[in-house]
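User: We ran a pulldown and think these components assemble together. Before we commit to crystallization trials, I'd like a predicted model of the whole complex to look at. Sequences follow.
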Amino acid sequence: MPLSSRHLLGLQGVPKEDIQLILDTAITFREVLERPIKRVPTLQGKTIVNLFYESSTRTRISFELAEKRLSADAINFAVSTSSVNKGESLKDTVRNIEAMKVDMVVIRHAAAGTPLMLTKLCDANIINAGDGIHEHPTQALLDMYSIREKIGRLEGLKVCIVGDIAHSRVALSNIFGLKTMGAKVSVCGPSTMIPKYIQDLGVDVIYNIDEAIQENDVLNVLRIQLERKAREYFPSIREYIKYFGITSERLEKNKKDILILHPGPINRGVELSSDVADGPYQIILQQVTNGVAVRMAVLYLLGTLN
Amino acid sequence: MKLLLKNTRVLNPVQNLNEKNLDILIENGIIAEVGKNLQQDSSDVKVIDLTGKIITPGFIDIHVHLREPGREDEETVETGCNAAANGGFTAVACMPNTEPAIDSAEVVEFIKKQSANHLVDVYPVAAASLGRKGEVLSPMAELKDSGAVAFSDDGVAIKSASLLKRALEYSLMFDLPIIEHCEDDSLAGGVMNESFNSTLLGLPAIPNVAEDLIVMRDILLAEYTGGKVHIAHISSANAVNMVREAKKKGIRITAEVTPHHFTLTDDAVKTYDTNTKMNPPLRTRKDVDAIIEGLKDGTIDCIASDHAPHSIEEKEMEFEYAPNGIIGLETSIGLAFTELLHKKILSLEELVLKYAINPRKVLNINIPLIQKGFKAELTILDPDLVWTVDKTKFLSKSRNTPFDKRLLTGKAIGVINNCKMFFDGKFTSI
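Assistant: Here's a predicted model for the assembly, 736 residues in total across the polymer chains.
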């Protein structure tokens, strides 16, 4: 059965069957990544533009690799090298790209809703690679893939997202996706970083990190964006580390068996202590590998829809 | 030139006038007679049958942005006045966020000159501080003498409590109101209302309390100084309740609401349509319900559109980057009739109060009387006309409306003022 939509704009409202299909398809591509020749001809002849209006290294490289491993023609359009700096509107940029006969557009943009806007401006399949503080669906899909790979299921699992929930597109996509897959989701962080109406999404709010560790099977720890506004939301990094930082002492005090995810890049010594970031509970680098497979699955399923 | 308007209902609450089957004879722009079965005595009388229609004092929209001087690509005084006439208004008050701001007698006089020969009267609202910067008071007395009817830093609240206090104290000398855009600067900066929807949409949000704080501040300073504060585009439930309580205490405070704030909720933002982006933002159902209560019990005095023209290029942008505001002159009355009259929230008399009478009281402008010897300044309404909004037919220069293709019931079908008539889509001299 094909996907129910020709775009991947977010995980809000995406049916369980679609998520299941993407995760199952990713298993096949994950296997391809272990082969000596890591390339399949699946999207040969398809042209995919990576339209990145916001700087990103890992997501862009992950998409680019996924595209190349599917034999698609990948073109990178990054903000610093583009005509955006010359004041061209998004509409004109997208129409120009479309005029070059592009099949799919992967977009990263600092403004929420931009991927939806693109669906109205051109005919290509649109994949959201992160829009503002809205959604980052492929990150949530690779998180779910990684959890499922490790634990074997998502249904009934208790997952807590830790950190700056209010300014995170990863949090929102994870909440939508995990809830659809039957997980029990909570969030934990300083109260100033928890959106006011988050409980209406059916998630629990925890302010005590020890409690979050005790009560959950999985912690998905978000990056505290020290370079951005985040620092206005808590008194000091020292206080953040003391009350929300995850250290091995804390893990041992509370519980032995827990799975720790982090979308990267890590602030070592802030949200995760170095020994936790390199320790036995985390699957941070598996997430990165799985990210390529999951993005291959998304590109393949959307690219072969028609 | 004579004009005979026949078989119409005439409604003017300030005259206790509400009578059907009246005729109005207008000669050289002056009402020559009001009565039953007026006869046409000569052939140069233009007769219009208005059976089923209603004539009221000319409606006024006291919150419009005409964009001239500065952004004539979006609207000019002339095109804004044309839109006003097409929307059923004989007068507008234009806000001072022009470039340059309306903060000198020269700019007031320029705007008066640009509108001098138009059917629609333009009443400039001047900046309360120089350049709307919130630092130094504008020359308020001189602005008043050149024709300004109120003061506002428009788009932002007057920056500090001390400057607002001084502006209110100074304005006491000529008893003009300070019109306030109520938003606490330190809580502003979002692009939609803070609600469950903003969490879902991942858009930076403005909480209600940003509005409520300044409404409270302004009420307290109005009470303290005895000055008049008019709250522009009230949008939050708390603000409506605070204004109600302030009025009970006799504080000189008035309020207006826009049609979009009583028609839409922030559910409309779910499409990321930039024509649902305005400031104050669309709020929740609870706020809309409070606004409707406030309209019913008189807490909210006026309906004003906050007509804010923007170019297509500016609005065809990422939601977070697009400017705030929508045009409203040509949909205001249709929305009010559809949402308030036909849903039995307000009576026709109450609508006339909110569109023609109360706004003029706020600005100390004479209320047109429908009486022999007075200037004919009239709006002609068809309360039951069913029509579809078509933005391509607007007379405004801009097209930024969320109401295109919306089916409405009730419309102003003509206006008369300054020896001119707008009827059947045409301006004529009468």
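The mean pLDDT of chain A is 93. That may be worth checking against your pulldown data before setting up trials.

User: Thanks, that helps.
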